Amino acid sequence: MQAEERQFLIEQHLQKVEFASLEELSERVDVSVSTVRRDLTLLEAKGALRRTHGGARLVAPKSDEFIFTARDTHQLGEKEAIGQAAAALIQPNQGVIIDSGTTAYHVAKHLGGKASHVITNSLPVANHFGSDNSVEVLVTGGVIYPRLGVLVGPLAVESLSGMHADVAVMSAGGITLDGITNSHALLIDIQRAMLKSAQRIIFCLDHTKFNRRSVSPLCELDVVDTIVTDAQAPADLVDQLKQTGIEVVVAD
Amino acid sequence: MQAEERQFLIEQHLQKVEFASLEELSERVDVSVSTVRRDLTLLEAKGALRRTHGGARLVAPKSDEFIFTARDTHQLGEKEAIGQAAAALIQPNQGVIIDSGTTAYHVAKHLGGKASHVITNSLPVANHFGSDNSVEVLVTGGVIYPRLGVLVGPLAVESLSGMHADVAVMSAGGITLDGITNSHALLIDIQRAMLKSAQRIIFCLDHTKFNRRSVSPLCELDVVDTIVTDAQAPADLVDQLKQTGIEVVVAD
DNA sequence: AAAATACTTGCAAATATTTTCAATATCTTC
DNA sequence: GAAGATATTGAAAATATTTGCAAGTATTTT
User: Fold this and answer.
1) What CATH number matches the domain at B76-251, 3.40.50.720, 3.40.50.1360, 3.50.50.60, 3.90.226.10?
2) DSSP A122
């Protein structure tokens, strides 16, 4: 059996059982426990699963809500800080558009009852405000993009285009001096509608997004008013961004 | 069993029972009480639960604060049965509109991957299908009605009016021979749009809804194709409904 | 305030992981 | 197609983690 085939089988098996011990996997693909260990290490690096003591678990278990909410600890500290700093930029009683994506979600968590209206296409954000009747939450329509809990499609774009907000809190996949990019092509149209509907544009981008280019271009830099990032963002790019007239807030 | 799996089971069990003693948990996951203690400490740090003397208690998760979801035990048995019976009426690969309201939610829970499309204005229903990519879930836009997790308002009505589905699974506040009524006036417009957009109308009404009249009239009986109810529904009204040509399914 | 119950701490046994190394398999290069 | 180089595999020793237990401390109950 080939190494790749074996790893594929492990992945597939894990999709079914969610948790698997080393012995279980070793028996199933008929190699030594050592090899399974090595495979798991590789698969973890690939992001396909997470190692645990004695075995492995699925990254996004079906029983789990959406990819993030509680369990996503990827750069959690930075995202929390960014969330707090971005929320501080919002004035009381403003109307805020909140993008999908983990970073924007953390902003929502820190927003409290500050905003009077929230517009979002993210189900986790909607859930977060769901039982809070101090904020009016407007959810765009759309088709659920599985695992992310984002509403996409024409309905989402349409419902956004008729709206207006004071601020848009956005996230994205990458930023360079050429502009901002994002990975999910389906989101681009929606994000552009968000950018059009808001007066002030705040992008929340942790340091890993700097000098990175995702597949689809989203917008030029001149659309952006403010960028919120963390302390590890590369100083040179931050300076260059400031020179183009963008306000850059560095959260600690 | 691995540590992570064990902790996951503890979390999951707690979702059901709200509170569990150390012994109970220790027995359930088959480790010593000491280990359960350590697990609980970790889970508490993660924010998944709250420790108490002798056990652990669920920390009310925001996303579940909608009136129902798991915790609403009001006529739970009946609603489960109705949910199952109504789900059985759906043919594979149909497009299904699912109304907000607890009873309709239970139908969603039993639907599995049967429907190919689901249209809903209920956040709990959307969440339920959220990470399932075998079903395409279309969420109407709208403003969140707090505590119920329902999307209401003109946007919800608009997005529904352009759609079409094979079946609509509805719930309501009361039914008499004069028609069906509902309590939330905001929902009426949306429900009417749902009724217009679907070919077959199934109303799910537990026995407490029979011979009851809510504030706002929703529709006449001739719109209804099928009513699913439980065994305690009054026989006379059930008979009379059958005579008007409505199919009445009684779940046990 | 005493009894009962639950919690914390420290420790040894069990279990898992990393590291290392020899054996085998696979790929190059001639 | 054979010889050497490289990569992969399985197994064993060293290291680290987790688990269960028991003694001591805190908390609740009566």
Assistant:
1) 3.40.50.1360
2) B
